[in-house]
Amino acid sequence: MADLGQGTKKKRKTASPERMDIRTIARLANVSIATVSRTINRIPTVNPKIAKRVWEVIEELDYFPNTQARALVSGRSWILGLIVSEITNPFFPELIQGFEDIAVEHGYEILVSSTNHDPKRMSHCIRRMLERKVDGVAVMTFGIEAPLLEQLAQRKIPLVFVDVGPDGPNISVLKVDYRHGIRQGVQHLAALGHRKIAFLRGPLALHSAQSRLDAFSESMRECGIPPKPEWILQGEHTLEGGMAAMQQLLAGKDMPTAVMCSNDMTAIGVLHSMYRAGLRVPDDLSVIGFDNIHIAEVTIPPLTTVQMSRFDLARAAVNALRACVEGTETSPQKHEYNIQTDLVVRESTGFPRGTMKELRKKSPTKK
């Protein structure tokens, strides 16, 4: 077979055209057809040196294994499902990318569906998963209609959830430690001298949004700062929600000196509203987000935020599904994987407005 272009690996030349199939691979690698089949299906009992030889022949010949035949041999589809809430929030495309990278590394394809927080779409997502006979499903929606998942659970398909999930075999839950990162954020603001701190929450129907609000309220009390109900507003986890909530704060008689947001999109909405009002961050208001999406590094100013690693979530989800699918985990109880959060300090937080002016007043003057 001719090279496809300069710089590509030179392909093995054959004396005459021949059908490219598993038999050809076996002959050229000097192994049995069964060994090639086991290698393609990544069965761990194959000698690593032999498996390496088989894969080298496959690469040289640009052979693409028949996925349908592979499924018949292994009894598996080699597809992992991933259900997310939406794809307009940059958090989820970044999560999908990490999930796919890790899945492909282990020989799996992925099937992605987005619910847009709509139960009807969720039902459609599940139907797609069943039709494609996925080996396992990661439900990364941060809130789900439990009855809809019975269709998957009844078929004993391995499932991964975020935060909460039903008890039973083949169930894994990624437990996000919201409290740690949010506590760091509140302590960071308190150390800067902030006592007037608002919180823009997400929809409380989402378990993750309620957990973040609880973590904020608890952390505020730990710092001796009673949360003010009128400064806890819903930001909807959207850019528009953050803008609207910030407009409410700006219209109030008493303005906070800092705002903590339940996610980065809300925080970016706050930054935009401050810009439109002719105010500056952090001079007039300190802002903290949550998620640490990639764009948070390049907002003006760069956003201080709580990091929840999409890569850690993706890796834990794929590993949990593989453990069930590949039979390395057989416990009848659900399994939990901890996901850490940490504060990332950038330039959107500073001293409360007027602090430097007060310090200059108190400093001794030269005679």
From TrEMBL:
The residue range of the signal peptide is none
Q: Write down the PROSITE patterns for this protein, in alphabetical order.
A: HTH_LACI_2
Q: Which residues form the HTH lacI-type domain?
A: 22-74
Which InterPro entries does the protein's record reference?
HTH_LacI, LacI/GalR-like_sensor, Lambda_DNA-bd_dom_sf, Peripla_BP_I
What UniProt keywords apply to this chain's record, in alphabetical order? DNA-binding, Transcription, Transcription regulation
Any single GO molecular-function term of the entry would be: transcription cis-regulatory region binding
Q: By its UniProt entry, which Pfam families does this protein fall under? A: LacI (PF00356), Peripla_BP_3 (PF13377)
UniProt keyword Transcription regulation, yes or no: yes
Can you tell which superkingdom this protein's organism belongs to?
Bacteria
Query: PANTHER family given for it?
Result: HTH-TYPE TRANSCRIPTIONAL REGULATOR GALS, LACI-RELATED TRANSCRIPTIONAL REPRESSOR
Its recorded name reads LacI family DNA-binding transcriptional regulator
Q: Which organism is it from?
A: Edaphobacter paludis
Q: What is the lineage of its organism?
A: Bacteria, Pseudomonadati, Acidobacteriota, Terriglobia, Terriglobales
